[in-house]
């Protein structure tokens, strides 16, 4: 049962909440009856444990987005042929006390397969320092800095750190993963924003005006949803001129993936509009002489903004998967851009996987962040309507 | 019922028209036109195209005409079953696509059958035994299914198959049958290779449908008519399967309309990872080589077949749900 937040008679709203918890003391009941809509939502959201865990994970990931340079310890393009396809160096914590280190290694070329073979050398311990100095960067794009979460400060040139191993060009996978996180998650956020604008605009028009507009927009949505999206995206993405810069391609890809994503959001917005249009408080506002704009902006939008936030959160994973899929196929972002999909491209065939399975590690953050967004979105959806059950 | 059918049919026709326009846009998008690519292709392979030939080609494809005329010409060609020439192969597009289109549809439809066959019993079990261990396992696996994109699942299984069984799990045919003409033995070989790709493709959809089925059935199970049926002494399985499951099945059937485009989409990218001889790898190659007639035709045919499939699922819905059949009769 949907109840508008501005409905007169607050007592009636509170009742179902209070009666479902007969043991609530009077003081708490008092607190609930004066709580704002957003407070009630927060209380309900907090009860959803998985959603809380999901939110924390999402926050951590966006922390990486902001401070990718700090979490990385090598420039994403720094490559070295001598270190090609090096397996991960596991971190050892203890060495007669707390002294984190990794083992050094010696590499040579196998005379038969011509592949580089590396053997770890436990005698050669490379100390790993926290907050070590490394390559220079600008924190948040502003403050010059050279500190990194971990590093091998001051060590000899050949003593380097590759926590997740290296790729074919000898680039550090961990550092590239940090930068890839930045690209993939911002593209998802940007794409969902464009989808949101389109969805709210078209869904709102559709739901509020009804009639011919509604029919046309609904048919367009149905048509878009019955076309297989990946072939379509591929076709559009392949047409991007190869002379475009990394930035131009980035925006074009964002636009392409958001062209499809808006349909679901438009559906949610339209549904809300349709159900709210019939509510008594809208009629009351109309009778009191409010303008259409005022009804939409001060009465309708606040009462469904929570639903939109939930739907947006649930739309984000699809955006991230789309970008990853396109880049994985080589038609999305192009090197030197780094994204999860670009990183996974190296793991495209079974030969590469068999020789260097660590190239598959970028799959882990993709799965984790999608799960986290799904849990968070589920919690938000339940909390979006704090007056219902 | 007729009104419903007419509406769905009209929408299907409209969608097919939208797909033809989009495919045409894809063909037209890259700089240059078919002839410039053709000349480039010919001179790259040491061939020569005479000026007269160029003029003739331009006239045939109507490249000197405005956009809408070109579109109409292209549509006329397509309706006559002529899709142009695939540059890279120098063979008609329809010949290059060949069996691949049907194999794509076989894989996709099989994936939907698998999705249904798995989601229905698991969903019923999860609802009837709510909060049991099995329910929790199903929920957990379901979340994984939602979170792992199908191509990633294919990659992971490919790696595991290689590592633990030292076998390549990709492909749709054994080497022996790959180029062989269609025989019963080849069909059997195909059937033996189908389970893995269909499971990978159907996984996410299954996860979604299990959740829908579970929620719908839970809603129904508490209703008075279920209590009545039980009080009348019907056996538990009969109570559940005969009444609430039938009601819960309806939204289940209507999701197939969105499931088919989703699975066809997924099959493109999964085929690439698993090396399936569907249109997926062909489409990708055509796009990278800017062989736009081939790419546009594949997008067009995939879209049209998907719409036809969706329309068939609407007919199925009509058969399952009497409420739609009786619509407008009151």
From TrEMBL, chain B:
GO biological-process terms attached to the record: transmembrane transport
Entry keywords, A to Z: Cell membrane, Membrane, Transmembrane, Transmembrane helix, Transport
InterPro entries: BPD_transp_1_N, MetI-like, MetI-like_sf
Topology with respect to the bilayer: Multi-pass membrane protein
Domain of life: Bacteria
Matches recorded under Gene3D superfamilies: MetI-like (1.10.3720.10)
Annotated SUPFAM superfamilies: MetI-like
Residue ranges of domain ABC transmembrane type-1 in the record: 101-313
GO cellular component: plasma membrane
Subcellular location: Cell membrane
Main location, first listed in the record: membrane
Transmembrane spans: 9-27, 101-124, 136-160, 259-280, 292-320
Family in the record: Belongs to the binding-protein-dependent transport system permease family.
Record-given protein name: ABC transporter permease
Organism field: Candidatus Segetimicrobium genomatis
């Amino acid at each position: 049962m949907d109840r508008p937040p501005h409905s007169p008679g607050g007592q009636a709203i509170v009742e179902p909440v209070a009666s479902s918890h007969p043991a609530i003391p009077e003081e708490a009941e008092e607190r609930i009856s004066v709580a704002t809509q957003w407070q009630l939502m927060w209380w309900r959201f907090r009860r959803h444990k998985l959603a809380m865990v999901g939110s924390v994970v999402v926050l951590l990931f966006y922390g990486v987005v902001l401070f990718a340079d700090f979490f990385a310890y090598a420039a994403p393009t720094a490559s070295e042929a001598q270190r090609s396809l090096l397996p991960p160096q596991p971190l050892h914590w203890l060495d007669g006390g707390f002294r984190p280190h990794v083992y050094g290694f010696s590499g040579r070329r196998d005379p038969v397969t011509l592949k580089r073979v590396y053997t770890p050398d436990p005698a050669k311990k490379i100390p790993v320092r926290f907050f070590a100095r490394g390559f220079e960067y600008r924190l948040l794009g502003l403050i010059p800095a050279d500190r990194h979460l971990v590093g091998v400060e001051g060590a000899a040139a050949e003593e380097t750190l590759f926590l997740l191993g290296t790729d074919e060009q000898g680039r550090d996978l961990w550092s590239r993963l940090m930068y890839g996180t930045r690209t993939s998650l911002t593209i998802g956020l940007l794409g969902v924003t464009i989808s949101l604008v389109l969805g709210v605009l078209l869904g709102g028009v559709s739901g509020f005006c009804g009639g011919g507009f509604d029919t046309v927009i609904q048919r367009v949505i149905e048509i878009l949803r019955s076309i297989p999206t990946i072939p379509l995206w591929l076709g559009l993405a392949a047409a991007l001129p190869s002379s475009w810069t990394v930035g131009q391609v980035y925006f074009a890809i964002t636009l392409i993936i958001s062209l499809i994503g808006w349909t679901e959001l438009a559906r949610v917005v339209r549904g809300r509009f349709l159900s709210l249009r019939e509510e008594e408080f809208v009629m009351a506002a109309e009778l009191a002489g409010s303008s259409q704009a005022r009804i939409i902006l001060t009465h309708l939008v606040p009462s469904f903004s929570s639903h939109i936030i939930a739907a947006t959160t649930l739309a984000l994973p699809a955006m991230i998967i789309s970008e990853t899929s396109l880049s994985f196929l080589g038609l999305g972002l192009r090197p030197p851009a780094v994204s999860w999909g670009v990183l996974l491209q190296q793991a495209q065939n079974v030969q590469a996987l068999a020789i260097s399975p660590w190239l598959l590690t970028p799959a882990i953050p993709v799965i984790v962040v999608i799960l986290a967004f799904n849990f968070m979105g589920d919690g938000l959806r339940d909390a979006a309507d704090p007056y219902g059950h | 019922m007729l009104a419903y059918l007419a509406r769905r049919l009209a929408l299907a026709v409209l969608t097919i028209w939208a797909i033809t326009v989009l495919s045409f846009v894809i063909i037209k998008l890259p700089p240059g036109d078919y002839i410039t690519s053709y000349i480039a292709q010919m001179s790259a392979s040491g061939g020569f195209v005479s000026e007269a030939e160029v003029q003739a080609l331009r006239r045939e494809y109507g490249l000197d005409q405005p956009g809408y005329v070109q579109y109409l010409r292209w549509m006329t060609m397509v309706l006559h079953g002529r899709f142009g020439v695939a540059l890279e192969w120098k063979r008609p597009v329809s010949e290059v696509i060949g069996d691949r289109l049907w194999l794509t549809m076989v894989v996709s439809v099989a994936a939907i059958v698998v999705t249904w066959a798995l989601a229905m019993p698991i969903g019923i079990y999860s609802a009837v035994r709510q909060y049991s261990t099995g329910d929790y396992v199903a929920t957990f696996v379901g979340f994984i299914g939602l979170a792992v994109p199908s191509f990633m699942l294919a990659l992971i299984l490919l790696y595991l198959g290689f590592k633990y069984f030292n076998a390549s799990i990709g492909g749709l045919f054994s080497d022996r049958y790959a180029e062989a003409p269609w025989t019963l033995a080849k069909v059997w070989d195909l059937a033996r290779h189908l389970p893995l790709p269909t499971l990978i493709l159907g996984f996410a959809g299954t996860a979604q449908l299990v959740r829908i089925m579970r929620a719908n059935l839970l809603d129904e199970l508490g209703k008075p008519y279920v209590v009545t049926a039980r009080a009348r002494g019907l056996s538990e399985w009969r109570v559940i399967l005969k009444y609430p499951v039938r009601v819960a099945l309806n939204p289940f059937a209507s999701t197939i309309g969105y499931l088919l485009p989703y699975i066809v989409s997924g099959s493109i990218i999964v085929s690439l990872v698993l090396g399936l001889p569907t249109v997926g790898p062909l489409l990708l190659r055509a796009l990278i080589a800017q062989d736009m007639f081939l790419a546009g035709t594949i997008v067009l045919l995939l879209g049209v077949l998907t719409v036809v499939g969706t329309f068939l699922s609407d007919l199925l819905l009509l058969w399952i749900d009497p409420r739609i059949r009786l619509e407008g009769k009151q």
